Every structure is written in structure tokens, then in C-alpha cells.
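Worked example (supplementary).
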Amino acid sequence: MVKPPAWTYDGIRPGAVLGSASITVDNSFVERWLRLYAGEPDTRPDLPAGMAMLIVMRSYAQAVSPRPPGNVHASQRLTIHRAPRVGERLTTTVRCQDKEMKKGRRWVHLAVDTIGEGGEPCYHGIITSIWAR
Amino acid sequence: MPARRAIPLLPRSLRVGEEQVKAYAELSGDYNPLHLDEDFARGTPHGARIAHGTLSLNLLWQSIAATYGDDAIAGCTLEVRFIKPVYLDDTVITRSADAEDADGTLAVSVENQRGETVISGRLRLAA
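After joint prediction of all chains, the assembly is encoded as:
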């Protein structure tokens, strides 16, 4: 299978959707998260609030792939609208909000929206990265 | 209903070792060689492997959830800048101001074991 080309700065157009990804977070995934962060076992039906950024980043990594090696995250903003349920199918769309060259660096601002089953918003974020090439 | 008042965050800390970086790469699906490949990282301005920025950022969300409770998270906005890289074997800890500012936001941060700020940001609670 031929690998698609990596997303480059020149190939990213402001306003365009770069991709979307759907994931379902099950109990085993939550347990791996809790092991990493030494969290207490959680039997609640909702995902731990601390997992929000991870869900966004995992979805982003799937939706915008491949990315050039060496990208660096510069800043982020995340609003949590509601905590998804364990086992809920979550769909994230990544759109380029803007991009700019500053001091020779390639800045890319991506708007990330995660919705749950039924289209209810869960997360809204802005990820700003310095693109490697 | 009166607006919720911000209170200092309960601190959370994490030692960022090899095991944590690999586990986070698998959880996030982010296999950037900057985090995983020593040879690649040596050729970057960082000079060595660094941890995923969001590995430390998640700790801030953990602090927020521990302080206010998972049920109070809906409507919260956290805005941060990544100030310094976190290198392997660093230990990071979350911090916050004692009270919110006039604009209703709470200054929050993540520091490394040398007291250097690696993430700086502001938390706005739900109205």
C-alpha cells in the first residue's frame, strides 16, 4: 500500500478541513490512562475529565496523518462542553483556522471539534503547532 | 446562580521517564521521533528527546478535575502555552495562583523539578 504524502505547511489551506477521525474509548483504554497517571480506579460511566486532551490529541493524530517529523506544539486552548461516556463513539474534525510565517517558523492554527453520538458537542479546541516543513 | 470562584489547584506530579513517554505515544497515537528517536532528536534544536507537551498538559486537567470534581468540568476552558520542553527523567508538577484575577481566570502552570515553568496558562471555570 502506498503511503500518502505528509501534510506540509504549503499544503495546508486556511479554512479547509484536514480530516476527521472517529474513536471509541473503552474501559481498557481508560485503565491504561489511569495506570500512566496513577489515577484511582474509576467506575463512573463518564470518561475521566483529565482524558479530554488525550482524546483530542489521539483523534488529531489519526485525522491529520502523516505529519512531518519534528512538529512542535506551541499552545493550546480547550473547552470541555461535556464528558463523553465510556464506549461512546466520538468523532473529531480538524480544520485549519489560520497559518502564518513568523521569524522563519511555520505556525499552524488548527480548530478541533469533537462530537459524541447524536452530534452533541464534547470538546472544542485550538491547537497551535510549529510545522517542521 | 453566582459564578463559581476559582480556588488553588490541588497539585499533581509525574516523573516523565522512558516508560511514560512510550505509554503516552501508544495512548495518543503520536509517534513523533522527537519523542521516541534519540538520533533524530539529537539533530534538532532540543538536542535530545523531549516528552509530548500534552503529556504534561494532561496533568493540569487532572489537577483541575481533582480540585473541582469531574462533574464541574463542563464549560471549563484551559488555554496554555508550552514554554520549555520536558526532557526524559524530568519530574513535572502542577501549580496555580491562590485566587483568580479580575478577569475571572486562574493562572495555572506546570513546573519541572528545577522550578522552571514548562507550561503556563489560564483556566476559566464555567459560569
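Two points are worth noting when inspecting this output. Helices of chain A lie at 27-36, 52-63. The two ends of chain A are 24 Å apart (CA to CA).
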